[in-house]
Design brief:
Blueprint lengths: L1 E4 L2 E4 L4 H10 L6 H18 L8 E8 L10 E8 L4 E7 L12 E6 L5 E6 L15 H12 L10 H4 L28 H12 L2 H12 L2 H8 L4 H14 L4 H11 L4 H11 L5 H11 L5 H13 L6 H14 L2 H13 L5 H5 L9 H9 L1
Antiparallel strand pairs: 1-2, 3-4, 4-5, 5-6, 6-7
Helix pairs in contact: 1-2, 3-5, 7-8, 8-10, 9-10, 9-11, 10-12, 12-14, 13-14, 14-16
Length: 374
C-alpha cells in the first residue's frame, strides 16, 4: 500500500498496531532508520485522523532529548513536528515504556505551545489507556492524568527508574504494587504508574527546552513584543529571558516593554525591573525607572525604590527633585522612608534638593520625625 500525506510518500507493509509495537517495544534496537521512518508515518497518519488537513504547513525537526526509561537515560534523536499555521509543536510517542513487553501500547499525540509548555494530548478515536489487569481508564482517570501532565513540577521527576521496576516481574501490566512505597499516589493514576511516569517525562522533559530553543532562535523582536502583550505569565517570562540574553536595550524596545509592564502582575513587574538594572547606560536606566514610577500600586513602587537603592548608577539631581515633589503630593510614609535611604546611600547633598524636603517637617509626626532625622 502506498500512502501520501502532506506531500510525503510512505510505503506501509505492516499493520499500524504492529508498527507501534515494533517502535515502542524495541525502540532503540540497531534499526534506527526504520524507527524514524515509522515514527514519521505515525505522526502523519495520526495527524490525519485528528483533523490535521493536508494543506496545513508542517515543519519537521530532529532534536536531541533524553527520557529516563529510554536508552538508559542517554541522549537520543527524536522527531518533533511544528504546525506553522496554528503555531504549536507535536509528536507521537508510545503510551508506556513497558519492561515486560506485554503492556498494551497505544500511540499518544502530545502537544506543546511555542515556548515549550505542554498543553494537551490526544488518542486515536478507538484507542484507550489501560491500568492493572487490562482495566480501561475511567473518565476520572483521564481527568487526573490531565492534571498530572500539566504540572511542570512533580515528584515523578525525582523517581528512580528502579523504584518503579519494583513491580513484580511476573506482572503483565503497568501497576503500582511495588512503586507505592516511593511514589505518592497523588502523582499517579492508581494502577498506571508506568504510564504516568512515561507520559509525564515526555510532556515535561527536556523536549520542552528544545522547543523553547527553536522558538528563541527564530523569533524576531516584533514577535517578542507580541508575546509580552499576552496575559499568560509564561510568555512574559520568555520575553524577559530572551531580551536579557540578547542584551536588547534599544529605546523603542524598552518603551514598549515599560508600557505593557505598568499593568502586569507583581512578579512580572519585578522581573522587568531586574532586566532594566542591566541597562548599560545610566541615563536609560533612570528614564525607564521614571516611566515605571507612574504605577499606583504600592508594592510595585517599593520594587522600584529597592532597585534605585541598589543600583550602582547615582542618577541626575533632577531625578531626585522629582521624587521629592511626587512624595509631597502623596505623603506615603513607607515611600518617604525609602527615598530618604536612597538619599543617604547616594550622598545627595545638593542644597536646592534638600530644601525641597522642608515642607514635610510640617506633616504628621511619623513623617516629620523621619525627615528631621535625615
Amino acid at each position: 500500500m502506498v500512502l501520501k500525506i502532506y506531500g510525503y510518500t510512505k510505503f506501509v507493509v505492516m499493520n499500524h498496531r504492529k508498527i507501534n509495537e515494533i517502535i515502542y517495544t524495541h525502540i532503540f534496537n540497531k534499526k534506527k532508520q526504520l524507527y524514524y521512518m515509522l515514527l514519521f508515518f505515525n505522526l502523519c497518519s495520526f495527524a490525519q485522523n485528528n483533523q490535521f488537513q493536508k494543506e496545513k504547513k508542517l515543519e519537521e525537526f530532529k532534536v536531541k532529548i533524553n527520557h529516563p526509561s529510554i536508552n538508559l537515560g542517554r541522549t537520543f534523536d527524536h522527531v518533533l513536528i511544528k504546525n506553522e499555521e496554528n503555531i504549536f509543536f507535536f509528536t507521537e510517542i508510545g503510551s508506556v515504556i513497558c519492561k515486560t513487553h506485554v503492556c498494551k501500547i497505544v500511540p499518544v499525540l502530545l502537544f506543546w505551545n511555542e515556548i515549550g509548555n505542554f498543553t494537551h494530548y490526544k488518542l486515536n478515536e478507538n484507542d484507550f489507556l489501560e491500568k492493572t489487569e487490562g482495566a480501561h481508564f475511567t473518565n476520572e482517570d483521564y481527568k487526573k492524568l490531565d492534571e498530572i501532565l500539566l504540572r511542570k513540577e512533580s515528584k515523578l521527576k525525582g523517581v528512580n527508574l528502579n523504584e518503579i521496576e519494583g513491580v513484580d516481574k511476573d506482572d503483565e501490566v503497568d501497576a503500582i504494587s511495588g512503586a507505592t512505597i516511593v511514589i505518592d499516589e497523588e502523582e499517579i493514576v492508581k494502577g498506571a504508574a508506568w504510564t504516568c511516569f512515561t507520559l509525564w517525562h515526555w510532556a515535561n522533559g527536556n523536549i520542552s527546552k528544545r522547543i523553547r530553543e527553536i522558538t528563541a532562535k527564530r523569533i524576531e523582536l516584533s514577535g517578542l513584543i507580541g508575546f509580552f502583550k499576552k496575559e499568560e505569565q509564561e510568555y512574559n517570562e520568555f520575553v524577559i529571558e530572551q531580551l536579557t540574553i540578547r542584551k536588547e536595550y534599544r529605546d523603542e524596545i524598552v518603551e514598549e516593554i515599560i508600557k505593557e509592564t505598568l499593568v502586569k502582575k507583581r512578579n512580572i513587574f519585578k522581573k522587568v525591573v531586574s532586566f532594566l538594572e542591566d541597562v548599560p547606560e545610566e541615563q536609560k536606566y533612570y528614564k525607564a525607572i521614571t516611566s515605571l514610577l507612574k504605577v499606583e500600586n504600592k508594592e510595585k513602587r517599593n520594587i522600584i525604590y529597592a532597585s534605585i537603592k541598589n543600583t550602582l548608577y547615582k542618577g541626575p539631581i533632577s531625578f531626585y527633585r522629582n521624587l521629592i515633589l511626587q512624595i509631597e503630593k502623596e505623603k506615603r510614609t513607607q515611600e518617604i522612608q525609602y527615598i530618604l535611604e536612597i538619599f543617604k546611600k547616594n550622598k545627595i547633598e545638593d542644597e536646592k534638593t534638600i530644601n525641597l524636603l522642608f515642607p514635610l517637617l510640617n506633616e504628621k509626626l511619623v513623617i516629620s520625625r523621619k525627615v528631621f532625622g535625615f
